[in-house]
UniProtKB/TrEMBL annotation:
The keyword Ribosomal protein does not apply. It is a peripheral membrane protein. Residues 6-242, 252-496 form the ABC transporter domain. This is D-ribose transporter ATP-binding protein. GO terms for cellular component: plasma membrane. It is found in: Cell membrane. It comes from Thalassospira alkalitolerans. PROSITE patterns: ABC_TRANSPORTER_1 (PS00211), ABC_TRANSPORTER_2 (PS50893).
Length: 496
């Protein structure tokens, strides 16, 4: 085999409370497509950002053609012939196709002025290479989603790179468009380019890739030829870990059905969702990026309108017109993006906790601050919130304590059902254990929890039952006694 055109050795990257990459390695070879495989949170996105100069690694070596290089900025990646095609490229509808292609790679003439004639010519050549007939002078807003995607491809190829990263490139493509992408990948491979192909879909991996590298929990697990492994082998490498004390499951007596959902559908996000939730139960929802889990939860909370289906909560028809309606009927939602959707960072802790119930804490139009503090103190104590005082702004708290503020805010409304979407995303192990312990205490007290999580150990450690979604539909259901990591991941990838 030829020597690798790019090699990573012992690359590490740490963020506060999280070791995203822990001594990983990767080799990319000219004329080959290498799959980077791993669960959500395995470190794939962080690695892409290291390769494209967005993140500088804390340690380790990056070699291109056996020579050490540094990646301190996106311009370094470009200089070393690395380009990336992302799932959701940043593009500008009001600019032309040419302007979008060369927005980060502009050509200038001998006087230092933008050479639009050259860029239009190059844009036309790139689009012809992609076998797409698009006028380079058209505003991007006039193109279809598929054509916009191809423009992003042209932008990535405009730097004439030898190393091409494709991060979930088929996520928004139809079957026909995916086949066209495969043709393009094979063409790039046959031209000698080294391609890193990131996908959750095993059918794609076995269709288009020559080699594989597997990450798990920010660590390198293994690499080799695709022809030497099976799908089961890769699944086992992805999930090979055991549930430990971070997931302190409290056994509770599960009661009658509290909530039922029948045939719930949305025009674009999910279809025919059926499930029931019982008193004292943690019901887990698992799926890969784009599976539709969060979209279902947002519909339950009244954030989006459904096209069909019915729901019942506490033996009554449940059809919330808005989140306030859902809260009044006893259902609350802790969103995945706690900083932008769950809290107001510039307000103090006590005001965040009492936000949903200001009406009940007011007299004659004025907030009773003594009562407000009492409510906030009760839930801050119950959640073991760590802060200098309740007057401290939420933006100054750690990720784990911010999450506790969000949970406290909703618990103060005395709900029957609490939905937690990625409850421990981005928080340290100690805070994870505290959140899990508290979730167990909630169901022990009779509440019902729907937990959306991309972390298999969390799902398997905390859930009484697991529902698996793939491409907007429920594809599998598991009771606690019969769930296995391999079966859950296999269902989530859409594999048979």
């Amino acid at each position: 085999m030829n020597r690798p055109v790019l090699e990573l050795r012992n690359i590490s990257k740490t963020f506060p409370g999280v070791k995203a990459l822990d001594g990983v390695e990767l080799q990319l070879y000219p004329g080959q497509v290498t799959a980077l495989i791993g669960e959500n949170g395995a470190g794939k996105s962080t690695l892409v950002k290291v390769l494209t100069g967005i993140y500088a690694p804390d340690g380790g070596d990056i070699l291109i053609d056996d020579k050490p290089v540094t990646m301190q900025a996106a311009t370094d990646a470009k200089r070393h012939g690395i380009s990336a095609i992302h799932q959701e490229a940043v593009m500008f509808d009001e600019l032309t196709v040419t302007e979008n292609i060369f927005i980060n790679n502009q050509s200038r003439n001998m006087f230092g002025l933008l050479d639009w004639k050259l860029m239009r010519t190059r844009a036309k050549t790139l689009l012809e290479y992609l076998d797409v007939n698009i006028d380079p002078d058209l505003p991007l807003r006039e193109l279809s989603v598929a054509h916009k995607h191809l423009v992003s491809f042209a932008a990535a190829l405009s730097i004439n790179s030898n190393i091409v990263i494709m991060d979930e490139p088929t996520a928004s493509l139809s079957h026909h468009e995916i086949q066209e992408l495969y043709r393009l990948v094979r063409r790039l491979r046959d031209e000698g380019k080294a391609i890193l192909f990131i996908s959750h879909k095993f059918d794609e991996i076995f269709e288009i890739c020559d080699r594989y590298t597997v990450f798990r929990d920010g660590q390198f697990v293994g690499a080799g030829e695709i022809s030497d492994v099976t799908q089961d082998d890769l699944v086992a490498m992805m999930v090979g870990r055991t549930v430990n004390q971070i997931y302190p499951k409290i056994e509770t007596e599960i009661g009658d059905t509290v909530m039922s959902v029948n045939g719930l559908s949305h025009p674009t996000e999910f279809d025919d969702i059926d499930f029931n939730l019982r008193k004292g139960e943690i019901l887990g929802f698992y799926g890969l990026v784009g599976a539709g889990r969060s979209e279902v939860m947002q519909a339950l909370f009244g954030l989006t309108r459904t096209s069909s289906g019915s729901m019942n909560l506490n033996d009554k028809p449940f059809k919330p017109r808005n989140p306030g309606d859902a809260i009044d009927q006893g259902l609350v939602y802790v969103p995945e993006d706690r900083q932008h959707q769950g809290t107001i960072l510039t307000l103090p802790i006590f005001q965040n906790i009492t936000l949903p119930q200001l009406g009940g804490l007011s007299r004659s139009g004025f907030i009773d601050m003594a009562r407000e503090y009492d409510v906030a103190r009760k839930y801050a104590t119950r959640l073991q919130l760590k802060a200098a005082s309740l007057s401290e702004n939420v933006e100054n708290l750690s990720g784990g304590n911010q999450q506790k503020v969000v949970i406290g805010k909703w618990l103060a409304t005395n709900p029957n059902v609490i939905i937690v979407d990625e409850p421990t995303k981005g928080i340290d192990i100690g805070s994870k254990a505290a959140v899990h312990k508290f979730m167990g205490e909630l169901v022990a007290q009779g509440l019902s929890v729907i937990m959306v999580s991309s972390e298999l150990p969390e799902i398997m450690g905390m859930a009484d039952r697991v529902i698996v979604m793939h491409e907007g539909r429920i594809v599998a259901r598991f009771d606690r006694d019969d769930m296995t990591a391999e079966a859950i991941v296999t269902a989530a990838t859409g594999a048979s």
